Amino acid sequence: MARVFSFLTISIAFFTFIGCSPKTLPTAETIYVGTGESGTIILNSTGYYKGDFDKTTYVSEKQAFETLLFRGVPGSQVPDPLLGLNEKEIKDKHQKYFQEFFDNKRYRSFVMSSEVLDTSIKKGFKIVKIRIKINISSLTKDLESNGLKRGFGL
Predict the structure, then answer these.
(1) b vs e for 79-111, b when ≥16 Cβ sit within 10 Å of the residue's Cβ?
(2) Could you say which of 10, 64, 87, 132 would form a disulfide bridge with 114 (CB–CB 3.0 to 4.6 Å)?
(3) Residue (of 139, 136, 116, 137) closest to 128 by Cα position
(4) Global pTM?
(5) What pLDDT, in 10s, does the model give residues 74-113?
């Protein structure tokens, strides 16, 4: 009886803890807007997060970069992913790079501008739509110099 009670207590605590943590919803809401100066791309990206709006803006920016790196942007100068389609394998292989890139916000060094277009709340999720201009040329060179992408002619 004591084992059953302990198991139930631990299970309830676990699911309560998991249910209360901030959540991110993956979306495919990164849309090509246009090209800025040579070597740049302008995207609209929408992020969803159960937490504060600042973190939701980060989620929107991160999503724009993940789209460029792992999915590509149809109709743009980057129709194919910069790194490939196997996101998990690539992130596992280059874990240190992506920790620095996203967790330490190194990706911001490739952002030429980022502006919030709209904010809202729906079913407890904060929603932030941004317009972000990314320096694709510098990003590609960085990926090559860190061994994530082969340079032309190599």
Answers:
(1) eebbbeeeeeebbeebeebbeebbeeeebeebb
(2) 132
(3) 116
(4) 0.79
(5) 999 999 999 988 999 999 999 999 999 999 999 999 999 9
